[in-house]
Specification:
The structure is a homodimer of 305-residue chains. Chain A has 305 residues and is of the alpha/beta class. Chain A has one domain: Aldolase class I (TIM Barrel), CATH 3.20.20.70. Helices cover 42% and strands 14% of the residues of chain A. An 8-stranded parallel beta barrel of chain A has the order 1-2-3-4-5-6-7-8, surrounded by 10 helices. In chain A, helix 7 links the parallel strand 5 and strand 6. In chain A, helix 2 crosses helix 3, helix 8 packs parallel to helix 9 and helix 10 runs antiparallel to helix 11. The longest helix of chain A has 18 residues. The interface between A and B is large, with 55 and 55 residues.
């Protein structure tokens, strides 16, 4: 049996809509709209935002305005708001820091095949490159967060042994990662597998642990609760559940910020967000994108007023 | 912290698509298609099906073929498959038994306002009427299952004190209910409130306890896991997640049979169903209805083959 009374009292939501959410959108979302999306998220109480990624603009054209987004938004935000970005390599790190960022995210994949598809090199080659990035991060006082993609399964290799993401996480921590996030990139995790990996991760790692869930097969929110039960309370979410997965084109993507905040509110876990403002931001986002997003709270409204 | 190792090893899925799923569909789903839907569910391994409701045909025209559906399907099914129906009153009970049913469901609502909207009478008036039905059920050897609608909240009255559904459940058990189901009719429950009510219900009731969740606000599958953690393993589900809620017209309805079965499979909880056949039934259902359903597994496919 389970003791829900021992759940964390607060949760930290990291808004990844502007990066992971928009990344797979075929149409370019205008720079001004990206900036407005970040502003609105901050107004709704979000305190950490993955705003963009410093990848090669030819590889991800949607993120070609990375420097402009960061340079516009940074000066106007209160100091308690953290703006972060994904960097794939040393070049990306340089660009991110030049734009003013003090925290970046570095991704390894828990399966070799999937990693090679993403990075065009082996896990070991990326690890070697990241060692340089970590060294520069340490020297410059820039926090480097390690992300382990496909921690619960890979669309190419299938099941991933629990030791694989754990081993990569320990390596990233030793290299200097200041936080570790485990990502269920294509929505293959279920509460029992989430709990098993995270319980182990929390026991073995000294840095804060977070998670990134996709709701591809309806388990995303159940996985949030399993993570909380393992003591993990840092969640990547995206406004409206924006962000699909290229491997399951008709399936929904990230867990929605507003649906997660609503569930946590009702569970008496404080997120610091305003449901009303999250919903109005989703309404604005849907109008801006000209389509409905998969998050459900904006459709159904909060359970209790 | 939580011990996922103590979860039930099996789960029993009750397919409610033919009744709760179809009930709110504006277009009449042909009788032959309803029968085919039940046949396919049985072929996919489902062992209990809420096939229809014996309500007044003017009140719910979709269910006007209740007797025909039951009389056609009953003779052809193997004895281990239970076909059940909702009955609102003694008249409905008579019709259900005349059609050959040996198990029916009776609904009370945990809030007075919502109950009156559904039944046009008070909870107490319905309880009095049900006493007659239970007596006739006992005499005829027909099992009567008690359902408590709006157990976790009411769209009119808001929050529902945990004692209210528990008190109604105890009353139904005393009257002769052979099982009790708690329903989150408009998707207002979260894992902590699910756990709180069910832990209490399991402790107080002697009959088997089940649950009926809607995914209106993305918490349906998380609530399934919380129910399992409270020791409850009987779940109403509907193929494709068919079945909206009139109070949240654009939000999805029941938790999907195939998504629930997939999650439970991955959690090593046996449901006795074939994912492949559940998915092909959803594909058939979507084609028959000419629309996409909210369940995600039919879109994304199983996580692992």
């Amino acid at each position: 049996m389970c003791n829900f009374a021992e759940l964390p009292k607060t949760a930290h939501l990291i808004e990844v809509g502007p990066r992971d959410g928009l990344q797979s959108e075929p149409d370019f979302f205008p720079t001004a709209a990206k900036i407005e999306m970040i502003r609105r998220a901050v107004r709704a109480g979000i305190r950490e935002i993955e705003a963009t990624s410093f990848v090669h603009p030819k590889r991800v054209p949607q993120m070609q305005d990375a420097a402009e987004v960061i340079q516009t938004i940074l000066p106007e935000l209160p100091p308690e708001v953290e703006i972060i970005a994904l960097v794939p390599n040393e070049k990306g790190f340089e660009r991110a820091v030049a734009a003013g960022l003090r925290k970046v995210r570095l991704v390894l994949t828990a399966s070799q095949t999937f990693h090679r598809k993403n990075f065009n090199q082996s896990i070991e080659e990326t690890q070697a490159e990241f060692a340089q990035v970590f060294a520069r991060g340490k020297a410059a006082g820039v926090n480097c967060v390690g992300i382990i993609a496909a921690s619960w399964g890979c669309p190419y290799e299938g099941r991933v042994a629990v030791e694989q993401p754990l081993r990569l996480a320990e390596g990233l921590e030793q290299a200097g990662a200041t936080e570790i996030f485990f990502a269920d990139t294509t929505g293959m995790a279920v509460p029992t597998t989430v709990y098993r990996l995270l319980q182990e991760a929390v026991a073995r790692l000294s840095v804060p642990v977070g998670v990134h869930f996709h709701n591809t097969r309806s388990t995303g929110y159940a996985n949030v609760v399993a993570a909380l039960q393992a003591g993990v309370n840092r969640f990547d979410t995206s406004l409206g559940g924006l962000g699909g997965c290229p491997f399951a084109p008709r399936a929904t993507g990230n867990i929605a910020t507003e649906d997660t905040a609503h569930m946590l509110n009702e569970m008496r876990i404080e997120t610091g967000t305003s449901l009303e403002q999250l919903i109005s931001t989703v309404t604005w986002l849907e109008a801006s994108m000209g389509k409905k997003l998969p998050g459900q709270l904006a459709k159904a409204g909060p359970a209790f007023l």
